[in-house]
Amino acid sequence: MQIDEAYAELNIVQDFIPVGNSNRPGRTLAPKSITIHNTDNTDVGANAAA
């Protein structure tokens, strides 16, 4: 699956650390892959942001 296909078919959420935040490392990354993690957890609060 190509990246444009993934965006079209999957519910992808990008949540980046804003520029200027002290916990943002400040270096450019060149990602080579992604990890899709699904715990199949249906309990209350399972959809909370990490």
Automatic annotation (TrEMBL):
GO BP annotations, alphabetical order: peptidoglycan catabolic process
GO molecular function: N-acetylmuramoyl-L-alanine amidase activity
Protein name as it appears in the record: N-acetylmuramoyl-L-alanine amidase domain-containing protein
Organism (species): marine sediment metagenome
